[in-house]
Design brief:
The protein is mainly alpha-helical.
């Protein structure tokens, strides 16, 4: 980022305490210059995991319902029209 004069701001001094943090180690392993890892750390991941499980189950139920509804409607139409199965 540049300021009004077009010069880059001076970089912040290194923080020795953060050099060995988990984020910094992962960033260095990926070849990044700074310990920026999108997303950060969630202090309480359990509610998010619970919500993900709920929506995952809901998705599976909806897909199964759509597939079964197609079969049921196909059988119902075949019976109603009296057409024999091919």
């Amino acid at each position: 980022m540049t300021n009004e004069t077009g010069a880059r701001p001076s970089p912040l001094p290194p923080d020795p305490a953060e050099y060995d943090s988990a984020r910094a180690r992962i960033a260095r392993a990926k070849g990044l210059e700074a310990p920026y890892i999108a997303g950060g750390r969630d202090p309480d991941p359990e509610p998010a995991l619970r919500e993900e499980r709920y929506y995952g189950r809901l998705l599976i139920v909806m897909v199964v319902t759509l597939i079964l509804a197609g079969f049921v409607m196909g059988v119902a139409i075949a019976i109603a029209t009296g057409s024999p199965p091919r």
